[in-house]
Amino acid sequence: MAPPGTEGLGQLRETFLPKRIGTVRMVGLLFMGTVSLIIPPLGAYFFWLAFKTPNLSRKQAARRLHLFEHGLAEVGKNGEVSVFRWDSMTVLQEITERYANGIYVGTTYVYTLYREHGTTLKVTDFYAQPERWGPAFQEEITRAQLPRLLAGLEQGQTLTYGGLSVNLNGVATAKGSLTWPEIEKVEISQGTLVLRKHGKKLFWARMPVKEIPNLFLFLALVDQVRYGGPRQDA
User: Cβ contacts of residue 31 below 8 Å, gap of 6+?
Assistant: First the structure.
């Protein structure tokens, strides 16, 4: 059921639930809490970690992430509802692969959402299937905002994405600018956006993906200006 305050978001498409932690990890937290009772503050910390998980906390288990036709809504642990519309929101994504002694141990997902008037919300892999809802954020924002921004470019506007500025002539950073014909490649490599200039082995500019607002929208704008549509080498 859609929560209150979401009446203008259209059809509910999908709901994501809190991700319950595995049995081994839960047993580990409770075991460490019990063992650490000889050091009360440490034992209390492990028990606190265990009892704030969706496995044991009713409030945490009741949280929801709803994706609608025109936006999203997150229901917090106290029942508060945060609503963001695709056509006016901005998102920064930070996806980090974690390693221990060279062995992959997991990936963390943090999406920071912004409304036009400055309200923010962090959505993390507290919710299950971040590899689905994260790209959905970016794709829906792109669908909702791309036509308007393309029209703005046609009217001579310059759009800013972090440290990058884009217009019909090309792209600029604090170090200078390139026209579109001068750009050989725009690619994502190891969490970094890389721009390469024709005839140069080294990158012309690079920027961490986590610093680029509405990443998919930025890439779609670049594709439209350079190719008139989705890139052919994707």
Answer: none
Mean of per-residue pLDDT scores for the chain: 86
CA atoms within 13 A on the CB side of 111: 24
User: Encoding tokens for residue 33?
Assistant: 């809490």
Non-local (6+) Cβ contacts of 11 within 8 A are 68, 69
Rounded to 5 degrees, φ, ψ at 165 are -120, 140
Full DSSP string of the chain: -PPTT-GGG-SEEEEE-B-PPPHHHHHHHHHHHHHGGGSHHHHHHHHHHHHTSTTT-HHHHT-EEEEESSEEEEE-TTS-EEEEETTT-EEEEEEEEEEETTEEEEEEEEEEEE-TTS-EEEEETTBS-HHHHHHHHHHHHHHHHHHHHHHHHHTT--EEETTEEE-SSEEEETTEEEEGGGEEEEEEETTEEEEEETT-SS-SEEEEGGGSTTHHHHHHHHHHHHHSSS-TT-
Q: Which of 3-7, 29-33, 61-65, 120-124 has the least mean pLDDT?
A: 29-33
